[in-house]
Amino acid sequence: MQSYPLSRDFHVSFSDLKIVARGLVRPECVLALDDGTLIAAHGEGGYSVIASDGALTHRLIEPRDSTRAYVPNGVALAPNGRVLFADLGHADGGLFSIDRQGKLETVLDAVDGIALPPSNFLFVDEHGLLWFTVSTRKIPRSEAWNHSVTDGFIGVVDENGARILADGLGYTNEVAISPDRRWLYVNETYAQRVSRFPLLGKPGSPVLGPRETVAQFDGADLPDGLAFDAHGGLWLTCIASNRVLLVRPDGDVQVILADTDAEHAERIARGIRTGTLQHADMQTPGRSRLGNVSSIAFGGRDMRTAYLGCLLDDCIRSFQSPIAGLALPHRSRRIS
Question: What does the CA dihedral 132, 168, 240, 229 come to, rounded to 10 degrees?
Fold first, then answer.
């Protein structure tokens, strides 16, 4: 087996970070394309585009197409160039597409005959399958911000239609397929763990095997975003602790970046343990400057630029990685 090429001493400080763009609204999720374009969720109902020259454009749902307040969380780029988003509304969810003119179309609003609760994440794989997650069926979501609620699920829209593939998860967040396509990885944010499922079945009709725990965390490490590098390392962003972690192929966890407010982190950890965490507790990063770092995406010409999205700041930051990220199917797609 080839050894993992990243030094165990590799670390990024806050001063190493570059601000790629400001003026965004809740850029929770970031996509990187091979022409230098970045796409980010826009929390007021749409998405933002950062061109390779830094020009920033917001594309929002036209008022005539909107009868409710949408909160795009995860964003994806479909093979046909439509930008998709998972709606993390207060009580409503679903998967939607939005075009350059702000026209909204429903992609999926129910599964198994039941309306989708507030929805977290989605992506379209190389076979055209749409994967998505719902973190919890609890409303408000804060009722699931503890270790005891496990009602999140992973779903897919494939040749058989929309269906749930895995249920009973502890606040399901981002998912990713491993470089060898043998596993589906998922962050269970408030269970504070990374899990994986064997990816079985045909490419057009996947089946998931039993869940395995890849990494278990404690304190205020709440895994939110995840991305693979080209060598099988799994990079994670953790809200509350405001850390970027790497789960190396051998299972060791390496701290890549940390900007943690220790006092705030202890309050969050205590709230999770006691089941008393409230919505207001998660609306601040404390004194951290990372704004609750929520996603990581590799891009750039050599795939060695790591872009960081966040929940509570107006910017996307980046740093340089010594090793390349895994190129995802959307990288060569273009917004239509």
Answer: -50
Q: Which DSSP state fits 120?
A: -
Read off the DSSP letter of residue 292. S
Quick: pLDDT tens for 232-271: 999 999 999 999 999 999 999 999 999 999 999 999 999 9
Whether CATH 2.120.10.30 fits 14-332: yes
Question: Which own/partner contact pairs does 57-62 have at CB distance under 8 Å and 24+ positions apart?
Answer: 58/25, 59/83, 59/98, 59/100, 59/102, 60/102, 61/98, 61/102, 61/104, 62/101, 62/102, 62/103, 62/104
- Report whether pLDDT(1) > 60: no
Give the C-alpha separation, 223 to 182, whole Å: 22
Q: Do 329 and 75 meet the contact criterion of CB atoms below 8 Å apart?
A: no
Q: How far apart are CA 82 and CA 101, in angstroms?
A: 11
pTM over 0.90: yes
CA distance 262 to 284: 13
- For residues 93 and 119, the answer to whether their CB atoms sit within 8 Å is yes
CA distance 239 to 231: 25
Alpha helices in 181-324 (DSSP H): 262-274
Buried b (16+ CB within 10 A) or exposed e, 160-191: eebeebbeebbbbbbbbbeeeeebbbbbbbbb
> pLDDT at residue 83 above 70?
yes
